[in-house]
Amino acid sequence: MISAIGWVPVGVSDPNPKRYELSAAERDVLQAMEEQEGNINNRDQITNKDKRKRGTIKVQVPPSAPASELPADLRMDEYSDDDEADEGAALGNLLLDQPASIAAEVAAEEAERNDSDSNDNGNDEEDGDDHEDDDSDDDLADVPDTREFEPVDVEGLGSMGLYNVGMGTGADMEDMDFDEDDSEAEDVKITDDDAVILVTKTEDDFSALEVHVYDQKRGTLYVHHDIPLPSFPLCLAHGQVSSEGTTGNFCAVGTFDTGIEVWNLDVLNALEPSCILGGEDTSSADEMMKLQMAGGNTKNTKMDMSGMNGASLKPGSHTEAVMSLSWNPIHKQVIASGSADTTVKLWDVTQANDHAKANATTFQHHRGKVQSVVWHPKEGTLLATGGYDRKIALLDARSSGDNAKFVKVQSDCEVLAWDPFHPENLVVGTEDGQISCWDVRKFDTSSPLWTLVANEFGGVTDLSFSPHVPGMLVTCSVDKTVTLWDSYSNGAPIQSGSPTPCGSKDMCAGKLYSVGFYPSTPLLLGCGGSGNILSLWNLEAEEGVKRNFGDRLENIGIKTIDSEEADDTSTPKKEDFEAMMAADRGAEQKSDQNGKKKKKGKKGKKKAHKRGS
User: Which residues, 6 or more positions from 164, have their beta carbon under 8 angstroms from its beta carbon?
Assistant: First the structure.
């Protein structure tokens, strides 16, 4: 099931994403390990210096000590007379510093043994000469090769371009490695023609954040990479600021857990999020992991962890599932979140590592689960929220929630959206299938500008405005369809009546839960739902779109078919010429048939006249 989708604007993604990136905790662990290794090296150097100063300890036995008084393992002269025993006796004499007379006897015995060895070697050399003579008789160099196959013609293979095929040299192998690296880099490269779509998907109890790429030139759609998630995802929001205050390509994901995970989308094999806002307090476990990886003592840490049967939450964390997210388009380090605990929280991403400062403020103006939060596209402090208490709230994030303005709707709120061309208008989609548009300048004192029933039976699960075409609105529903609406009349927002439907389509993706326009292309939208399929719809060829938005499309440089035909009326087309020729051939065939019928009629009359006569 696809629970949410989002788009990445063109130029935000890194064209050459990284394979892996160390997290802050991993960098701390590596630094601690380097420091510990440096301490060990310093300690070893000090120990070696002390050994050199102290010198080697020698064990000496007084020369006058009789051999019978020595331990049994040191009586080297009582062993057998074989080679190893003699060498052992000599070594024992050297270590025990025996009298010179005994050493002289041992030296004499070694000299005799060396003489005997030299004689034996001489005899072996003579025997070796005989063996060489025998080997010379068995030389097979002059024997012809009677094997059936022929030797390999290297020059012939070279002329055929097959020289060293499959047996490349070291340089060739290095070139092959470079080619493989280049091909892998080319496979993951993202160009300006690629539309990047974010999808939160759950299948067989496995949840993931998938990064899809749609090649607009070739028309291909594929999964670029995916990121495993710990729990069922409910919402996502795209942003460009990291926990370290740097710009990048990030996605915040809300799940059934209490924390908000922020992932770096430019890392292919990301194992941990860049930061987590709220959620369980795992600082003690992180410290224990650092100590274990650094090889430190973890006894005290284990004692502290023993009492954590139920993990505590970070300060300011949500206490239930995170149902909605919105990344501020003006103050790019701020994220708003709505939760099943009926609260709305504001987070500062740059303070994510400081648990006490990450949660900037908390609003408690709703009495039900908060299903939708959305920042104003122009005013960075204006926030709209909608919940299951059938209330839509508008508040200034700089103050407390006591000054929030409310309007009542007939059913639970499902989705909120601002009109990008007239941002004073807020559109609300509810569970009963109704869509209403409110002027926030008269939010709590007036009725909506217009109301329509977009889907009477399936409800409205999501809606989105086109960021390029004024008035183009799209809705999706659990009836598996996507519907287009024109919310403008004569180039301005509708003040009375209701939007005009411009077409509907079954996206073949099951019950739909999320829909959105691509911000970098005027007429491309995507949706997903229970079918676990991401469906895209290019609206350029839709007649309803051309008919209702033709003038607005021409204003942004998109020509419709009618305008192209008007420009090309003076130039005959190949298809028209062929049609004219076919029409002429048809007229000739009809005339021939009529002529034949007339001739037959005349003949019949003549025959009748003859019979009458």
Answer: 172
| pLDDT at position 14 over 80 | yes
CB atoms within 10 A of CB 507: 22
Q: What is the share, in percent, of the chain residues with pLDDT greater than 70? A: 62
Q: What residues are paired with 251 via a beta bridge?
A: 238, 263
553 contacts: CB under 8 Å, gap ≥ 6: 469, 522, 523, 545, 546, 559, 560
Structure tokens at 389: 């208490």
HSE-up of residue 483 (Cα within 13 Å, Cβ side): 24
Whether 352 contacts 262, CB under 8 Å: yes
Give tens-digit pLDDT for 137-155: 555 566 666 655 555 555 5
Sequence-ordered list of residues with C-beta below 8 angstroms from that of 361, at least 6 positions apart, any chain: 345, 346, 397, 400
Q: Mind listing the pLDDT tens digit for each residue in 469-518?
A: 999 999 999 999 999 999 999 889 998 889 999 999 999 999 999 999 99
Residue 162 CA to residue 157 CA, distance in Å, equals: 5
How many angstroms separate the first and last alpha carbons of the chain? 92
Buried b (16+ CB within 10 A) or exposed e, 281-317: bbebeebbbbbeebeeebeebeeeeeeeeeeeebebb
Provide the angle, in degrees to the nearest 10, between the axes of the packed helices 24-54 and 283-294.
30
